[in-house]
Amino acid sequence: MGKRLFDLVVAAAGLLLLWPLFALIALAIRLDSPGPVFFRQERVGRHGVPFRIHKFRTMVADAPVRGRELTVGDDPRITRVGAVLRRYKLDELPQLIDVLQGTMSLVGPRPEVPRYVQLYPPALREKVLSVRPGITDLASIEYRRESELLARSDDPERTYVQEVLPHKLQYAAQYVEHATLWTDLRLLARTLRVLWGGGT
Q1: Residues 36-53: b if buried by 16+ CB within 10 A, e if exposed
Q2: Does the record carry Nuclease as a key word (predicted)?
Q3: CA 103 to chain CA mean position, Å
Q4: What is the DSSP letter of 62?
Q5: Least-confidence region, from 10-14, 66-70, 93-97
Q6: Which DSSP symbol is given to 46?
Q7: Where are the beta strands (DSSP E) in 132-198?
Q8: Spatial separation of the C-alpha atoms in residues 13 and 175, rounded to whole Å
Q9: Which DSSP helix (H) or strand (E) runs through 48?
Q10: Whole-angstrom Cα distance, residue 65 to residue 67?
């Protein structure tokens, strides 16, 4: 089974099976704070083509005008429901829609916002953007507590650009070089273990 067919089958099955959970999450978001259920943001996709990613909203509706794009520690913009969604990465589930639309894959380098993509070294930029971005990848697992790491920094933006982003790019490049359906299955299984079973 090819990667794209695998993505389509799993994403379609996931949306079909998880729609009751989607409905409950949507209701909780609306009851918790005013604003839309989904958060849409421009990210850079395959071959540098921009797209708007789907996420469940985890912050107050006017969060973009209240602070930076990075989420640092116990960001006061995060809602009560949003904190739970972030802890278990449930806010990422709507990206199954992006997988069906063809702008994302289940596994692949996480898509960045345009201003950080501009900082990619040219050779790595071409390599990382040669594949569809994913819902999960090795960097997502290794940096699952990224906001806590940034909260310990005197300058979170600088720490992200100079320390975190280069490591993420290295993970992404390694994925592109060695990606197979088997590696995707292993990363999906590891992601589930980390989120729900406390594994590594």
Answers
A1: eebbeeebbbbeeeebeb
A2: no
A3: 13
A4: T
A5: 66-70
A6: G
A7: 134-136
A8: 25
A9: none
A10: 6
